[in-house]
From TrEMBL:
Keywords: Oxidoreductase. The lineage of its organism: Bacteria, Pseudomonadati, Pseudomonadota, Betaproteobacteria, Neisseriales. It comes from Aquitalea magnusonii. Belongs to the short-chain dehydrogenases/reductases (SDR) family. PROSITE patterns: ADH_SHORT. This is NADP-dependent 3-hydroxy acid dehydrogenase YdfG. Gene3D superfamilies: NAD(P)-binding Rossmann-like Domain. It comes from the Bacteria. NADP-dependent dehydrogenase with broad substrate specificity acting on 3-hydroxy acids. Catalyzes the NADP-dependent oxidation of L-allo-threonine to L-2-amino-3-keto-butyrate, which is spontaneously decarboxylated into aminoacetone. Also acts on D-threonine, L-serine, D-serine, D-3-hydroxyisobutyrate, L-3-hydroxyisobutyrate, D-glycerate and L-glycerate. Able to catalyze the reduction of the malonic semialdehyde to 3-hydroxypropionic acid. It catalyses: 3-hydroxypropanoate + NADP(+) = 3-oxopropanoate + NADPH + H(+); L-allo-threonine + NADP(+) = aminoacetone + CO2 + NADPH. InterPro entries: NAD(P)-bd_dom_sf, Sc_DH/Rdtase_CS, SDR_fam. Its EC number is 1.1.1.298, 1.1.1.381. The keyword Cell wall biogenesis/degradation does not apply. One of its GO terms (molecular function) is 3-hydroxypropionate dehydrogenase (NADP+) activity.
């Protein structure tokens, strides 16, 4: 009998991360769940263990505190049972760029990009060595849309997509699956935490539907999964246009429109 890999999930105390934890427990995976709120993690661990007979270990950590990252990195690097990383913890901030404090900007970038990247970097060599495993990074459709007015949040999520595509190119030949999941508005606490009333939003997906759809993409080994996108060809066209740029942008001379007029 093959043993299922342990799933390491950040931001598992609520919302999308807690739902991933429930879904993977249902599939029979042991879990390591990470967030700041230990009492919520403990309650989830007890429930999932009772309902699904899996082992659930709780790791309390503040991922914005880079001093807390080495312990998590060491665990990902050294624990051969961990075969799937769900890089989910994230935060959003509402409000204009002009109104953001330096501390708030740093916190958001550290959580959404630095911690995510460092955790992926910690597990990737071991997965590549074993030729198996998966890294799932939770981005957002906001990463496509500066028009949504969440410039820093969107920029962090554009980073997540770029990083995931790059890692997929590097790691998939070595047997490691990398998935970027890009949800749109989903009913979780992130909205309240960002000072936005989710009930004022026009279209909101329920979190169970979002995670189940993301797992369909996971099982198909899709590199990029966008659950709310009904017309899949739109993504193919966007990514195709990006790839078509590549031959055009490698040029030794500036385009004619930038040549100095003498
Ligand atoms: N809901 C939505 O509309 C969308 C969400 N996303 C993304 O989904 C991901 C999950 O968010 P979602 O479930 O919606 O939101 P929630 O606010 O419900 O969950 C966020 C999770 O991250 C954890 N977290 C927050 N800050 C830290 C920190 N400093 N250190 C460790 N853990 C932390 C929280 O736990 P704790 O407070 O206990 O630390 C919580 O478990 C995020 O990356 C978000 O950007 C993407 C698109 C849409
Ligand atoms: C607060 C948000 O913008 C949300 N998390 C999203 O990514 O759509």
């Amino acid at each position: 009998m093959t043993t299922l890999p342990t799933v390491f999930i950040t931001g598992a105390s609520s919302g999308i991360g807690a739902t991933y934890a429930e879904r993977f427990a249902r599939r029979g995976h042991n879990l390591i769940i990470v967030a700041r709120d230990k009492s919520r993690l403990d309650a989830l661990a007890l429930r999932l263990h009772a309902e699904h007979q899996v082992s659930v270990e709780v790791l309390q950590a503040d991922l914005t505190n880079t001093a807390e990252l080495p312990a998590l990195e060491a665990r990902l690097r050294d624990d051969a049972d961990i075969g799937i990383l769900i890089n989910n913890a994230g935060m959003a901030q509402s409000g204009d760029f002009l109104a953001q404090s330096a501390e708030a900007i740093e916190r958001q970038i550290t959580l959404n990009t630095t911690a995510l990247t460092r955790l992926a970097a910690a597990i990737a060599p071991r997965l590549a060595q074993s030729g198996t495993g998966a890294i799932v990074n939770i981005g957002s459709v906001v990463g496509f849309a500066p028009e949504f007015g969440m410039s820093i949040y969107g920029a962090t999520k554009a980073f997540v997509l770029f990083l995931s595509q790059g890692l997929s190119l590097e790691l998939s030949p070595k047997g490691v699956y990398v998935q970027a999941v890009l949800p749109a508005a989903t009913r979780t606490e992130i909205w309240q935490r960002a000072g936005i009333d989710v009930n004022t939003l026009p279209e909101v997906m329920e979190v169970g539907e979002l995670v189940d759809a993301a797992l369909v993409g996971f099982d198909r080994r899709e590199p990029v999964t966008i659950p709310p996108l009904h017309v899949a060809e739109r993504w193919d066209a966007l990514d195709g246009a990006r790839q078509a740029l590549m031959s055009d942008i490698r040029q030794a001379h500036a385009a004619e429109r930038y040549q100095q007029q003498h």
